[in-house]
Amino acid sequence: MQCSCNSSVGHFSSPYWSRAVLFPDWAYKPAWSPGSRQVQLWHFLLELLGCGEGGAIGWGGEWGEFVIRDPERLARLWGERKGKPHMNYDKLSRALRYYYNKRILHKTKGKRFTYKFNFSKLILVNYPGYLPPSSHQNPSDSFTVFKKFQKLNNDSVTKSYLVSWNHPLPHTFLLPKPLPVPQPLHGPIPFIPAVARPEVGQREPRESGLNANGWLHRSSADWDVNPHISWNLSDYKYLNVNDKNNEKEIIFPNTYLTLSH
DNA sequence: CCCGGAAGGA
DNA sequence: TCCTTCCGGG
């Protein structure tokens, strides 16, 4: 059975989380789709965890910890998603072990089928409306903040960060880990509602303003004026950071934007 | 069950 | 690059 994650996942009492969904559609589009990226295993796991696909995988006792309850079933679901009919847990778990070096996951030792997300690697990019005034005045502060975050985590190699935005709490990125978010033992990870991917070829409105979801939205044309501003904007979900060449690459749904720093 | 090396595909 | 496949070893 497929888990579409379209249903409401209002496991939180806070209204901020009640309409949370995990990832935008573009994150799951097949590789040939323009502007989309192949779904990655950890996206897939979070999707299943988030929508309570209870049979194959579920949250564990600690924050970020999850237990694979039915390894072969999980492998079959993953194989279906990736078009790999011969996927099994042996192969899936090898992929999970590759995440150790990337610091996306680590193993909970001694607990069978139990892994843990390194949510300290999760960056919450604040909702522009909640940004501190200084960030409004100087958008490049977001880069500074990111560098601080990187230093805080002793991290110069991590390539993939899960980025969420529209976080309802102010000053989130200035707070130390662990993340200042509700910590459900079970239920969805409180990622932030996804902004719908713009249709390919569709012109975005030139003006900044609120989009259909009521969030601040700016046109991609704004990036041309000052690309640094993009950190504070909507429409991106995953951020890849490459320290080599002193460049930072932000991957937008339909755009690869390289920022020189 | 886990772990990582090696090779290779798309 | 991110796995997929295979595998020897603990």
Automatic annotation (TrEMBL):
Gene Ontology terms describing biological process: cell differentiation
Keyword Nucleotide-binding: no
Cellular component GO terms held in the UniProt record: nucleus
GO MF term set: DNA-binding transcription factor activity, RNA polymerase II-specific; sequence-specific DNA binding
Domain named ETS: residues: 39-118
Keyword line: DNA-binding, Nucleus, Transcription, Transcription regulation
Keyword Nucleus assigned: yes
Protein's cellular compartments: Nucleus
Record InterPro entries: Ets_dom, ETS_fam, WH-like_DNA-bd_sf, WH_DNA-bd_sf
Top-level taxonomic group: Eukaryota
Family: Belongs to the ETS family.
Descriptive protein name: Si:ch211-265g22.4
